[in-house]
Every structure is written in C-alpha cells, then in structure tokens.
Write a structure and sequence with these properties.
Layout (H helix, E strand, L loop, with lengths): L1 E2 L7 E5 L5 E9 L2 E8 L2 H15 L16 H13 L7 E3 L3 E7 L2 E6 L3 H6 L2 E4 L2 E6 L2 E4 L16 E3 L12 E3 L6 E5 L5 E8 L3 E7 L2 H13 L21 H10 L4 H14 L3
Antiparallel strand pairs: 1-2, 2-3, 3-4, 5-6, 6-7, 8-9, 9-10, 11-12, 13-14, 14-15
C-alpha cells in the first residue's frame, strides 16, 4: 500500500485481486495502529480519518452520532472507548467503573457486569427476529440462556429484570422465578409458595400443584414419559434436568408425584388408540 498526498493523511491506496483500486484509512494513536475501513475514493477514506481525529480530540459521545457520519457506529463507539479508557476493543463496548455497555445501535445500550467483558469482547451480539444471540463455533447461543433464562420463558412470570430495565443484563438485575419447563410459581395471601405443573400437548393440560419446584419439574418429566408409545409422542420436547438431585432422590420423587386424573385419562385414550384390541 502506498501513502497518498498530505491532504489525505492516513489514506493508503490498495488493489483488489482483480486490479480494482480502493483506499484504506487508518491511524496510529497511543501506540495503537487502528484500521478505520476502506472506501472507493481517497476523499471518502479521508473522511474516516478526519472523523477519527475529531473523536480523539473532542468530547463527542454516542448520542452525537448521526447516519451522515462516514464512520460506522461500531467504530465510533470503539474509538470513544479507546479515547476515554485507553483500551481498544473491536466490538462496540464502552467501559464504565462497575460495568460496561455494549451498544447495538445509537438507541440500544445493553449493560453487563465486568466479569463478562472477555466474552463480549470476542463475541459479537446479533439481533434476529427480536432475539439477541452470539455465534460460537458456528452455533447460535441465545443471550438470555447465559443468564439462566430458558427458551420460551415469559418475562414477568418466569423471570424479571429487577430494576425494570430489560437491557440491563447485570447478574444482580436478573431474577429467575421459574427455573424449570412447565413449572409456574405462585404465592398465596399467606405468602406460601406453591408450584403448578402443566404441559402443552394439543392444548394445555394441568398436571397438578406441588410443594416444591423440583416435584413440579419431575411431574412434568413424568407426564412426558407417559406419552411414549402414543401418537402424542413428539421429538424435541424439552425436559427438566435436576442435577442437584441424586438418582435415588429423583427416582423417589418420580414414584411419589401424582398427575391429574384429567391428564391421565387423556393419555390412556391415546394408548388405547395406539394398541386397539
């Protein structure tokens, strides 16, 4: 790459494999060489350099970004963080004293505990269908699953953001109410907790009410097991894993929990259909 004229400081001419000329922009600051991007003309590449210089020598912040800027928003955040904190992170992260922010766009700021900084420094957060996820070795990892929020969990029922901010993923702000599939916790007027188990099989069937979440979770698993051998049996139905219980304790609770008669009758009908006399 060859440097261009002084008017276009930080701009370098380069060629693609097919011989097409393009221009790269970069600069060195605090001993760090930073690539700003590439453009088709030297003038456009020079704009990248000038905006980077402006950021590093001003108090511009995230809310000063506009779509008319030459720099991408991600690079804008990265440079501001580098200016203020002296740490260069490729992803759009800004460090604060007790947490860090990951900016998806100028209007969306996610907050995380500092212990998650390494992970999000190398894993880019993406949005698809309203869901947040990171890619790890070709696998999409749902962001909420990192914090114990299971798939299809319902906000307000299965988990809550304590301060009401659903962009605040700091651990102290996430409270898991229901940890198991098919289990819902309720509290009566005397503040006593109970746990309801239900299953969705061509409609919602109530399985029963139990004293502990573990009993309700095992009742849900038992309800799934009873579907085997019927036309209701399906692959991929999520089951509950209770790693805190020993196999003996799990088996004891499994043998003791009872399911509602309405559900048992429903399953028996389908066993008869599967095994006609």
């Amino acid at each position: 790459m060859k440097p261009k004229d002084k008017a276009n400081a930080g701009v370098f001419q380069a060629k693609k494999k097919d011989g097409t000329v393009y221009y790269r922009s970069s600069f060195t600051c605090k001993g760090k060489h930073i690539s700003l991007g590439s453009r088709e003309t030297s003038e456009e590449a020079a704009r990248l350099y000038r905006e980077a210089y402006e950021i590093m020598n001003s108090t511009l912040f995230m809310d000063d970004y506009t779509p008319e800027r030459a720099l991408s928003f991600d690079k804008w955040v990265t440079l501001i963080n580098f200016r203020d904190n002296g740490v260069y992170i490729k992803n759009p992260i800004y460090l604060s004293k007790r947490f860090f922010s990951y900016f998806l766009d100028p209007d969306t700021e996610l907050k995380f505990d500092n212990e998650d900084l390494f992970y999000y420094s190398i894993h880019r957060i993406q949005v698809r269908g309203g869901h947040l996820f990171c890619e790890n070795y070709g696998t999409q990892i749902n962001l909420k699953s990192r914090y114990g929020i299971r798939p299809y969990a319902v906000a307000g029922r299965d988990y809550i953001f304590v301060n009401g901010d659903d962009t605040d993923y700091r651990y102290a702000n996430i409270e898991i109410i229901n940890s198991y599939h098919g289990v819902t916790e309720t509290v009566n007027s005397r503040l006593k907790k109970s746990y309801h188990a239900r299953i969705h099989i061509n409609g919602v069937y109530q399985l029963g009410t139990y004293d502990t979440a573990e009993e309700a979770a095992i009742a849900y698993n038992k309800a799934i097991d009873l579907l085997k051998g019927t036309d209701l049996e399906k692959k991929g139905i999520p089951v509950n894993y209770l790693e805190e219980l020993s196999p003996a304790d799990y088996a004891h609770i499994y043998s003791m929990v009872e399911l509602s008669e309405s559900y048992l009758s429903y399953v028996r009908e389908h066993h008869l259909k599967a095994s006609p006399v």
